[in-house]
C-alpha cells in the first residue's frame, strides 16, 4: 500500500489487485512527426462508435474539435507560431506544431480515486476505464482530472473518455488511433519499452539541434506518478493546452480530512458551548 | 487587483473542464447538508438539557433539510435513477462515497429521532437515534469542504484548509437561525449563541479564503475568483447579511420580529456564501491562467 495516493508506483495493476497482470501498456505520442491528419480522431470515433461533435468551427485555427471531451477521445491540436524558435525553418517565418492529445491513464488517476460508484476502474493493463453500466453521472471525475480530459455527455448523463481500446487490447490488438496513425506519431506498447524509445528519440532530436524537444508525462516522480500516455513536445506543455505540472488531488487528501475533522470538532464544540450556562 | 498574468496557453482555451455541478443544486445541497448536520447536534444538546421545543425544532429541521439535500443531490446526477450505485462500494479516497454513506446514516437517524419525537413512540430509541445524529451531523456539515477541495479546480483545491471551517461556521449559524426563529425567549438562547459563534467562524474563514491565506503557489492569483465577478459580489453580500443577522441576534431575545429578521439575514448570508463558492470554482476552471501560472512558478523554481 505504499504510495497508493501519491508518488512513484511501479506495479500499478498489482496495486489494484490483479494477481499476475500483463506488462503495463501505454501510448507514446511523438508530436515531432505528427502531420495533423486527424486519422487518430477519426479512427477512434469509428472504432468506439462515438457520436459526432457537430459541425461548429472554432475560428481559432484549423482545429475544430478544440479539446478532449465526452465525444472526443483523441484531439489533435494545431498551433501556428509566427516566430520560429531555435530551429532553422529555412526561409519560412512560422511553424506549425501538431499534437494528438489523449487521456493520460495516470499512475495516480484522480478521476478513478474520487469516483464514488466504482464505475471508473483500473484494468489489468494498468489503464483507466469507465464502466458505462455503473456510472451514475455524478461528474466528480470531471472536476478531479488535472488534465481536463474526462467529461459528462449531457444527453446521456454519463462520463466518457478514452479506454485505450480496452476491447482491442484484450484481443492482442493495438488501439485504433495507433493503428491508424500514418507517421507512427502515436506508438502503443509496453510502457517501459516506450519510455526507452522516447529517450532515444529525444537524444536524436537534441543531437540534430532541436533543443526545445522535451518529454512530458514520462517521469514516475511527477505529480501523478507518471502517465500511461506520455508525449514528446516541441514547446512548453501549456502551449498545447497541457498543464505544466499537474498534481493528483489525492496527494493532499489526508490533510483535507484532518482539516475537516478539526472543523467538525469545532462545530460540535460551539454547539456544546452554546448550551452552557443557566437556563 | 492581481496584475495581468503573462502565460502561455492553447488559444486561451481552458485546461480544466468546468465543473458540471450547477446552481441551485450544488449550493443548495451544501446549505441543506450543513443545516441538517448542525440542527441534529443542536437537537441532541437541547434534548440533554431539557429544552423540549428547541429539541423538537432541531429534529424536524434536521430531517427536512436532510431530505431536501438528498433530493437536490440526486437530481444533480446525470442518471438520477442510478443514485443507489453510490452505495455499491465504500471508497475512503472518494469524499462523495464517504459523504453518501454519512448522508444515508444521518438521514436514517434523523428520521427515527424526528418520528419518535412527533409520535411519542419509543422515546428511548428516539433519543438514542438523536444522539447518533449528533455525531453524524458535524461530519455531514464539514465533509462537503473536502468534497469540493478534492478536485483539480485551483480555487477549490487550494482552499482545502478554509472550506470545511467555512461550512462549519455557516452550518452553525444556519441551524441557530432556524432555532431562534422558532423558539423565542429563554429556551432559544443557545440557538442565538450558535448564530453568533457560527457567523464569527463563517466570516473569519471567508476572509482567509478571499485573501488566499495559507495557499501555496501564487496565493493572490489562486484566491482571485473569490474576490472578483459574480462570486466576489456574492461573498460580499453574504458577509453583509451574515454580519447584520449576527448583530440582530443580540436583540432577538426580546423581539420576535428581530429574531425572524435576523434568522432570514443569516440564512441569506449562508446561501450567498455557498453560491459564491460554486461560481468561484467555475471561474477558476474556466480561465487557464489559474492552472498554468501557479504550476509554471513551481516548475521554474524547481
Ligand atoms: S488524464 Fe484525467 S481522465 Fe485520464 S486517467 Fe488521468 S485523471 Fe483520469
Ligand atoms: S460521473 Fe461516473 S465515472 Fe465519473 S465519478 Fe461519477 S460515477 Fe464515477
The CATH topology of the largest domain in chain A turns out to be: Alpha-Beta Plaits
Task: Indicate how many domains the architecture of chain B comprises.
Answer: 1
Helix tally of chain A equals 8
Bound molecules: iron/sulfur cluster
Q: What is the class of the largest domain in chain A in the CATH system?
A: Alpha Beta
Protein name (chain B): Formate-dependent nitrite reductase membrane component NrfD
InterPro entries (chain B): Electron_transfer_protein, NrfD-like
Family (chain B): Belongs to the NrfD family.
Main location (chain B): membrane
3D structure, described in words:
- The complex is a heterodimer of chains A (279) and B (302).
- With 279 residues, chain A is of the alpha+beta class.
- Chain A has 2 domains: 12-248, Alpha-Beta Plaits, CATH 3.30.70.20; 249-278.
- Chain A is 26% helix and 16% strand.
- Chain A contains 8 helices and 10 strands.
- Chain A has a 4-stranded mixed beta sheet with strand order 8-1-10-9. A two-stranded antiparallel sheet of chain A has the order 2-3.
- The longest helix of chain A is centred in the last third of the chain and has 22 residues, at 253-274.
- Chain A is globular.
- Chain B is mainly α.
- Chain B has one domain (24-77, 93-301): Up-down Bundle (Formate dehydrogenase/DMSO reductase fold).
- In chain B, 72% of the residues lie in helices and 0% in strands.
- Chain B has 11 helices and no strands.
- Chain B has helices spanning 25-48, 52-76, 95-119, 123-149, 154-157, 163-182, 189-211, 219-222, 229-249, 256-286, 289-301.
- In chain B, helix 1 (25-48) runs antiparallel to helix 2, helix 1 packs across helix 6 (163-182) and helix 6 (163-182) runs antiparallel to helix 10.
- Classes of the chains: A alpha+beta (279), B mainly alpha (302).
- Chains A and B meet through helix 3, helix 4, strand 6 and helix 8 of A and helix 1, helix 3, helix 4, helix 6 and helix 7 of B.
- Bound molecules: iron/sulfur cluster (2 copies).
- One iron/sulfur cluster is lined by residues 103-106, 109-111, 128, 145, 147, 149-150, 161 of chain A.
Amino acid at each position: 500500500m505504499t504510495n497508493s495516493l501519491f508518488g512513484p508506483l511501479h506495479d500499478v495493476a498489482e496495486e489494484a489487485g490483479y494477481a499476475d497482470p500483463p506488462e503495463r501498456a501505454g501510448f507514446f505520442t511523438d508530436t515531432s512527426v505528427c502531420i495533423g491528419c486527424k486519422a487518430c480522431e477519426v479512427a477512434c470515433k469509428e472504432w468506439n462508435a462515438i457520436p459526432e461533435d457537430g459541425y461548429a468551427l472554432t475560428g481559432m485555427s484549423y482545429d475544430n474539435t478544440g479539446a478532449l471531451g465526452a465525444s472526443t477521445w483523441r484531439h489533435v491540436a494545431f498551433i501556428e507560431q509566427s516566430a520560429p524558435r531555435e530551429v532553422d525553418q529555412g526561409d519560412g517565418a512560422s511553424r506549425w506544431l501538431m499534437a494528438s492529445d489523449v487521456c493520460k491513464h495516470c499512475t495516480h488517476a484522480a478521476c478513478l480515486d474520487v469516483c464514488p460508484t466504482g464505475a471508473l476502474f483500473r484494468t489489468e493493463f494498468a489503464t483507466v476505464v469507465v464502466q458505462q453500466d455503473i456510472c451514475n453521472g455524478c461528474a466528480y471525475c470531471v472536476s478531479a482530472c488535472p488534465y481536463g480530459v474526462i467529461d459528462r455527455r449531457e444527453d446521456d448523463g454519463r462520463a466518457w473518455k478514452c479506454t485505450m481500446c480496452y476491447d482491442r487490447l484484450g484481443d492482442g490488438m493495438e488501439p485504433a488511433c495507433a493503428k491508424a496513425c500514418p507517421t507512427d506519431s502515436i506508438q502503443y506498447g509496453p510502457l517501459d519499452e516506450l519510455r526507452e524509445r522516447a529517450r532515444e528519440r529525444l537524444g536524436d532530436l537534441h543531437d540534430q539541434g532541436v533543443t526545445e524537444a522535451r518529454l512530458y508525462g514520462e517521469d514516475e516522480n511527477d505529480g501523478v506518478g507518471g502517465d500511461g500516455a506520455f508525449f514528446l513536445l516541441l514547446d512548453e506543455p501549456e502551449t498545447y493546452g497541457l498543464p505544466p505540472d499537474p498534481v493528483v488531488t489525492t496527494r493532499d487528501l489526508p490533510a483535507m480530512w484532518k482539516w475537516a475533522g478539526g472543523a467538525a470538532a469545532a462545530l460540535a464544540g460551539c454547539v456544546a458551548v452554546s448550551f452552557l450556562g443557566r437556563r | 487587483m492581481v496584475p495581468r498574468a503573462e502565460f502561455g496557453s492553447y488559444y486561451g482555451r481552458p485546461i480544466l473542464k468546468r465543473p458540471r455541478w450547477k446552481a441551485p443544486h450544488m449550493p443548495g445541497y451544501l446549505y441543506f447538508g450543513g443545516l441538517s448536520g448542525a440542527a441534529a447536534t443542536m437537537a441532541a444538546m437541547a434534548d440533554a438539557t431539557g429544552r423540549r421545543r428547541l429539541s423538537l425544532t432541531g429534529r424536524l429541521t434536521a430531517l427536512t433539510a436532510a431530505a431536501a439535500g438528498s433530493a437536490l443531490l440526486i437530481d444533480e446526477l446525470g442518471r438520477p435513477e442510478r443514485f443507489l450505485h453510490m452505495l455499491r462500494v465504500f471508497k475512503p479516497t472518494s469524499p462523495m462515497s464517504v459523504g453518501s454513506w454519512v448522508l444515508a446514516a444521518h438521514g436514517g437517524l434523523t428520521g427515527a429521532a424526528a418520528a419518535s419525537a412527533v409520535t411519542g413512540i419509543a422515546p428511548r430509541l428516539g433519543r438514542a437515534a438523536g444522539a447518533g445524529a449528533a455525531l453524524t451531523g458535524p461530519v455531514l456539515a464539514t465533509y462537503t469542504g473536502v468534497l469540493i477541495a478534492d478536485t483539480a479546480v485551483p480555487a477549490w483545491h487550494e482552499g482545502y484548509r478554509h472550506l470545511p471551517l467555512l461550512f462549519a461556521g455557516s452550518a452553525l449559524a444556519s441551524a441557530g437561525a432556524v432555532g431562534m426563529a422558532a423558539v423565542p425567549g429563554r429556551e432559544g438562547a443557545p440557538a442565538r449563541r450558535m448564530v453568533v459563534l457560527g457567523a464569527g467562524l463563517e466570516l473569519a474563514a471567508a476572509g482567509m479564503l478571499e485573501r488566499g491565506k495559507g495557499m501555496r503557489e501564487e496565493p493572490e492569483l489562486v484566491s482571485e475568483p473569490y474576490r472578483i465577478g459574480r462570486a466576489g459580489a456574492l461573498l460580499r453580500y453574504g458577509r453583509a447579511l451574515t454580519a447584520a443577522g449576527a448583530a440582530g441576534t443580540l436583540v432577538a431575545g426580546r423581539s420576535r420580529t428581530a429574531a425572524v429578521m435576523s434568522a432570514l439575514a443569516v440564512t441569506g448570508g449562508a446561501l450567498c456564501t455557498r453560491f459564491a463558492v460554486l461560481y468561484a470554482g467555475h471561474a477558476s476552471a474556466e480561465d487557464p491562467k489559474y492552472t498554468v501560472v501557479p504550476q509554471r512558478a513551481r516548475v521554474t523554481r524547481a
